[in-house]
Design goal:
flat; Hepatocyte Growth Factor; Agglutinin, subunit A; six-stranded mixed β-sheet
Length: 784
Amino acid sequence: MGHPLLDFLLLLLIVAITTDVAASQPSGNITLNSLITAGENLSYWLSPSGDFAFGFVPVPSNSSLFLLAIYYAKLPNSSTIIWIPNRNQTLSLNSSVVLTTDGQLSLRDPAGAEVWNPSVQNAAYAAMLDSGNFVLASSSGSYLWESFSSPIDTILPTQSLGSNSELIAKLADDDFNDGRFKIKMQDNGDLVFYFIAVPTGFEYSQYWDTNTNISNSSLFFNSSGRVDLVSPTGQLIDTVTSINTNSTADFYQRGTIDPDGVFRHYVHPKSSANGAAAEWTSMDSKPGDICKALTKTGSGVCGFNSYCGYDRRGMVACQCPEGYSWVNPKRTYKGCKPDFAIPRCIDGFQSVGFRMVTVNNLDFPFQDYEQFYPMKADECTQLCLDDCFCAASILDGTGNCWKKKFPLSNGEKGSYVQRTAFLKVGNNDTLPSLSLERKKSLSLPASLGLGGSVLLNLTFLSATLIALGVRRKKQRQRLKGFKLGSNLRSFTYSELEEATKGFGEQVGKGACGTVYKGYLSTEQNGNPDVAVKKLRDFEPEMEKEFTNEVKIIGQTHHKNLVRLLGYCNQGVVRLLVYEYMCNGSLASYLFDGVRPPWKQRVEIVLGIARGLRYLHEECSTQIIHCDIKPQNVLLDGNFTAKIADFGLSKLLGTDQTRTITRMRGTKGYVAPEWFKNSSITAKVDVYSFGTMLLEIVCCRRNVEKEMTEDKAVLCFWASDCYMAGRIDLLVEGDDEAMNDMGSVEKFVILALLCLQEDPNLRPTMGRMMQMLEEKVAIPLPVIP
């Protein structure tokens, strides 16, 4: 025994070292009561080699949100995630993972509520292994749970995919939700690739399989660089992918089912000393040609009305045909939409208004409803042009001609496709008009058949034309008389085309459509100038929603809302006609480099708040805007703020307070509940208002990447300034605001109240107006 005092000091040192290791736990076994937190520097647990990490990584599309993941620690983690426990749920800053004292692994949100647990108790420790496997182990070292047993879309060397196990592709490179493709190791021993329906996961098409039938077989990633099918006794049945030149000692390897449905065997050099490119390279894949393989049912790799091809690297490259554009350019699997009105079979449809585009080596193998033989190219083209049902015609080298109907699917293009496609597109006339000459050509033969008298023929033809004219006049009168609301006018497309001079003067563009300036000489509100918004992405099933919402919005009247004057719902065209706001958007007013007068900004804040209060609390049907931001606040000639783009927001009945809806809004203004699959209330607008309130105070955007890190995100910086008692820093250099620090401080506090993560802690807009007008006391905020 040594000196008692020295022994005691040594014990204290050992305890201190042990505590510090347990807190940071960079590698090795993870002891009980260890914790990592999203957003902190040590928000991960490393494998002994440092190759793999278990921890929090930012979501690629939103750095303020996180995923709990296993990833390659030495590579950019956004592109090297290999496992996620709850891939359909993102996490907020300060979410945490703890290995509790009773041996449970618990993922918790910032409030401490558990969001995931692998249902294992009494683990003695956890470990991030050099194989990429994260395990919970007993005191004897046996695994109670391992990430290898529940893979997501990737398998690693030494990992197996057992009977009835599956890999599901993510939806897109930056979207980790369940995607459209699945690999399943079936209990009959067959490895099958499925096309699945999102979001239900229904397996509705099989596009590749091994056709092996040895029950209870498994897929095994051999450490030598092969992905094999092996029998229950370990015998090799078949090799799925194989590479022989890249050892696992020098290269990372992974097998991943990608968002395009291809299972690829990737390698990445662990160092570039050998001269290899420091990037992931696909060395083998199944199926070899996904464009050919995925042509049985569904929309294909690239979605409807698109076609599949390859880039120079051999990766899938989706394209839209001429006359079509992406439904969502960042989500090409949603396919392409026609940039013209789909032909309608009414009153003797004909080809006026459409043209045919020729594309060589392109085929759409489905949706054919007629076949002709023999046919020449011009004949095959004209057959489709004259048929209102026909979207395209396909001609092969032997003279076979097929007519195709909407929507076109499973398109494939390449030198191996020995067919020519003729696509029907609009020729800048959105809706084809009925041709007088065509009607003459149709009517004249019929009239000649009635007798030999030229006079009789002319009389019959004249009567026919008069009848048609009366009929068309009645149709126009019915169209103009059809109104969704007593205060709204129903316009025809041609009227709005004329009013905007062929949609020639664009004054705005957003996610929902493009806005053009127009002039209506008969406008009764004293201002003939109007703004015409041409909506995009209209789908037939939206018809009822469009009609109901325009009808309700047309009945709203408030000085702080942009007035809706009318609409057009002709064919697939949807246009909204608003009063024109000559001073543009609040965004251009705030962020052009010159600070607007402080008193004017104060009035703008009050105007926006009044408009939102009206939408939330004073309408017979509550309206949640869902996209409050400076771009959607317009200024009239007196710089009065008016909220725009609420025509297609979410409506709630008088007996509703919340709703479930698809995500809407703009990055930087979106409330946290959108990411939590929670019910949506009017409080999402309150959150957006808080962000915009800070922008009005500071005359800068919420996110400014050029600024220093502490100031880049306005909401965070404002919170820091408030806690430090230095709100003045937010308006530094703004003399007018500095002279009214009472209002500045009030606005900042109110903004922080709006930005509370818990929507129940945010004020209503009615309460907000009371605090703005100083009719009630303003509580101190909890720092969000």
